[in-house]
Structure formats: structure tokens, C-alpha cells
Design brief:
By secondary structure, the chain is mainly α. The protein has a domain of 78 residues: Rossmann fold (3-Layer(aba) Sandwich). The protein is globular, with a radius of gyration of 14 Å. The protein has a three-stranded parallel sheet with strand order 1-2-3, sandwiched between helices.
């Protein structure tokens, strides 16, 4: 999201950097896991790209924090077949997304939490 080209494209199109970042991720040709802790816009665009058949993530961790469109963005995944971890409600954040990723890495290594 901090990439200068992403910022420039987002400004030119009148969308958020998170929106453009999800489109850029769609161009990656490898298994993808998304951990979104701050941008409901990213979560919504990710869901749209999946619905369009453009993206097929292995897992979506959707824990953005905030008030605007946060609950609605998370709810999209709660009723889908997309593998997901979602924190219901308005709470979450990048620290929560990172904690979930770390816990998954510990479990993958067979370590206890």
C-alpha cells in the first residue's frame, strides 16, 4: 500500500490504496493468504475479486478495525465458502492480524501457544 505507483493509481482512479493493492495481488500467480487488519475497503475489494473468479486465496484473515463499513466488510466472508478467520464487530487491527498469523505459524511448527 505504501508503493508510490499504488498511491498514484489510487489517486488517479479516485479509489483507496487498499483497493488498488488487492487488484495488484490478483496479478500474483501463487498461493495467497491475505491478512487484513486495517482497511475494510481491501476486504470488500478482495471479496469482489474472489466473486469475479480472479482470486482464489488459500485463506483470508479479515480483522479490520473501525466504524465505517467494517462490520459489513467482515460479514461478507462469514457467509461464504472462502476459508476465513474473521473477528466479528468493529474490533481488530493490524496487531490482531499479526497475532493470528503468528499463532498459525506456531501451530504449523507444532509448538504450543
Amino acid at each position: 500500500m505504501s508503493d508510490e505507483l499504488v498511491a498514484r493509481e489510487a489517486k488517479a482512479r479516485g479509489v483507496t490504496r487498499a483497493y488498488v493493492s488487492m487488484e495488484r495481488a490478483a496479478a500474483l500467480d501463487r498461493p495467497l493468504l491475505f491478512a487484513i487488519g486495517n482497511a475494510p475497503t481491501a476486504l470488500v475489494r478482495l471479496y469482489e475479486l474472489i466473486g469475479e473468479g480472479i482470486l482464489h486465496p488459500e485463506l483470508v484473515i479479515g480483522v479490520p478495525v473501525g466504524f465505517v463499513n467494517v462490520v459489513e466488510a467482515k460479514e461478507l466472508f462469514l457467509h461464504s465458502d472462502i476459508p476465513h478467520i474473521v473477528a466479528r464487530g468493529r474490533k481488530g487491527g493490524s496487531n490482531v492480524a499479526a497475532a493470528i498469523c503468528n499463532a498459525m505459524l506456531y501451530l504449523a511448527e507444532g509448538r504450543s501457544l
